[in-house]
Amino acid sequence: MKFKLTSLQIPFGITVKILSLSIMGIVSIYLLYVLIDKLFLHPPISPMVPLEKRRTVSDVYIQLNVINASGKQGIAKKAMNYYRERGFDVVEISTSETLSRTSFVIDHLSDTISARNVALAIGLSDSSIKHAYDTTLYLRASVVIGTDYYTLKPFQE
């Protein structure tokens, strides 16, 4: 038996409609992916203090200090620049005399939202937040950069 393949003639109008629907489907899937990514996978991190946690009118941006406990020079400055590029107010950097194996955030004002934003911005999890409340400080948080600094976002770029 011989089979003869003939070209299938599809009217031009239907071809354009199929092509248009395919493009719209691809664009829709991409936009859905971006929405899910921005809302659930990588939500935006705000450098602003939540309204209910502000103590003064000028208390708008999260103020923090960065402490280098890694033993490597220049780590605190790089972390400071990273935070400042994202809108955080880094008021001080310093070096610790003792090394820390892990990096962590210290919440000074019982503002868990701000402490969480500080931790997430640099790539730390919620479990890396420690609480040492001191209402005499104006700082909301301190970031201690340990010897695991290479796992943090500023040092992976």
Structural summary, described in words:
The termini are far apart. The chain has helices spanning 12-41, 75-85, 112-122, and strands at residues 63-68, 89-95, 104-107, 129-131, 141-145. The longest helix has 30 residues, at 12-41. It has a five-stranded mixed β-sheet with strand order 2-1-5-3-4, with helices on one face. It has two domains: 10-43; 51-155, Alpha-Beta Plaits (2-Layer Sandwich). By secondary structure, the protein is an alpha/beta fold.
Can you describe this structure in just a few lines?
With 157 residues, the chain is an alpha/beta fold. The protein has helices at residues 12-41, 75-85, 112-122; strands spanning 63-68, 89-95, 104-107, 129-131, 141-145.
Fill in the keyword field for this structure:
5 strands; five-stranded mixed β-sheet; 33% helix; 157 residues; 2 domains; alpha/beta; Alpha-Beta Plaits; 3 helices; single chain
